[in-house]
Give the backbone structure.
Amino acid sequence: ESNTKSDPSSLYSRLGGLAPISVVVSDFIDIVVPDTFLNKNPAVQATRAHVPAAYLKYRVTSMVCSATGGPCEYQGKGMKEAHASLNITEPEWDRMVVLFKEVLAKHKVPAKESQELLELIGSTKADIVVVNSQ
Ligand code: HEM
């Protein structure tokens, strides 16, 4: 596995590189895609028919790899564009964060690295949550 180009102090390296990152992302997508609360959003539910989970795993893994200082290049859509038509609400965002924290705990990602990943995810919130429902 070629993570040799990466700074050893990067979040990417501290997470253990691409193999552990891809496992955490894969588990996360496996939990998020069938989640009944998130699928109450009809726009989100509708994408299940035409956006394969394997595709989302690939895109989210390459994004996390890139954003944490790893050797990947994210070539997917911007977060605003990817989620614009999904009408994602604040409660849906909060549900996703709960599910993400469960996956981090399951894989025993250390507190510091978990916090950094949550901040990274948090930095995309303004582009993803388009409905202010509170
Ligand atoms: C409640 C929160 C979220 C929901 C319900 C959600 C749902 C979705 C759905 C349904 C798609 C497929 C859109 C389509 O192709 O029509 C998608 C794409 C994507 N999402 Fe999310 N998402 C959420 C949050 C996030 C977060 C926090 C990230 C990463 C920081 C993320 C990263 C991506 C990426 C990388 C894609 C693929 C973009 C592409 O096709 O190039 N999503 N999301």
Notes: Residues 38, 44, 47, 51, 56, 59-60, 63, 76-77, 82-83, 86, 88, 92-93, 96, 121, 124, 128 surround protoporphyrin IX containing FE (CB under 6 Å).
